[in-house]
UniProtKB/TrEMBL annotation:
It comes from Pontibacter akesuensis. This is Probable DNA metabolism protein. InterPro entries: DNA_repair_put (IPR023875), DUF4130 (IPR025404). Pfam families: DUF4130. Residues 84-251 form the DUF4130 domain.
Length: 259
């Protein structure tokens, strides 16, 4: 039994793959080092991330897999569900050990799991792009919080960078406690440890731009006027806009009364 730990990065996981192949010691479990529990059985191998080793694994995969399959593998990493590391390792091991493409081999559990995970992550990515709502702060920064089921923040950055290229903005993932900040030149990922009571709270009144409540009110008035009561279909609405995303939408918040 071989128990591997790594730092939680994608490069770290690829380094685990390299080390396992070099040692010919196939993992029975792979966990992030800060989540790992001590085990009395088997060999514990703590892997230090090595970008050169990770790069060699990735180059090797590029020779065995299509661009779509490589993307699915990365999406599975962002999926973050229990056992995803082992699924990725099994997929990579199968790919390296097969002369033919494994991408359509859904009889292999790891291939089917990667496809299903990638679909779930892709769906969550599009929902975040559609449902994120920004608030304007007093210093002219457009700020939004998200708490997606999967770690899709790296996947949505390009969408917002193109759509809001002329505005400073920041998106903070309250579940994973990091964010993306765009300064009109480039996007950088930032760690931000907010107190627990602030992670899901709306902007404080003093932090809002003077016109922000007015913008919110105008949007709510617009939504109310274009909404046709006779055509309401709650079941269809929930299918396209699940209730867990309502917290992002201005039209789902209590109505702002203007004096």
């Amino acid at each position: 039994m071989h128990f591997y730990t790594y730092d939680g990065t994608f490069e770290g996981l690829l380094t685990v793959v390299f080390e396992a192949f070099e040692r010919k010691a196939w993992p029975t479990d792979i966990e992030q080092e800060h989540l790992a529990q001590p085990s009395m059985f088997g060999e514990h191998i703590a892997v230090v991330t090595d970008e050169e080793k990770a790069g060699r694994v990735w180059v090797g995969l590029q020779k065995k897999l299509s661009a779509g399959a490589l993307q699915s593998l990365y999406h599975t990493y962002l999926w973050e569900q229990p056992g995803f590391e082992q699924t990725i390792f099994n997929y990579v091991k199968l790919a390296f050990g097969s002369e033919r493409s494994i991408e359509g081999n859904f009889a292999a559990p790891c291939v089917l799991q990667v496809q299903q995970a990638a679909k779930q992550v892709h769906r969550e990515k599009h929902r975040m792009e559609a449902f994120v709502r920004f608030q304007k702060t007093a210093d002219d920064l457009f700020y939004a919080t998200i708490s997606p089921d999967f770690n899709v923040l790296p996947l949505v950055i390009q969408h917002f960078e193109k759509r809001y290229a002329d505005q400073r903005w920041a998106i903070y993932d309250t579940r994973r406690r990091y964010g993306a900040f765009y300064d009109l030149q480039a996007v950088s990922l930032v760690q931000l440890e907010l107190p627990a009571h602030q992670r899901h709270a709306a902007l404080a009144t003093e932090a809002k731009h003077a016109d922000e409540d007015g913008y919110q009110h105008l949007w709510q008035v617009y939504f109310d006027h274009v909404n046709i009561p006779e055509r309401k279909n709650p079941k269809l609405h929930l299918r396209h806009v699940p209730r867990r995303y309502w917290k992002y939408l201005s039209e789902k918040q209590p109505r702002i009364l203007r004096k």
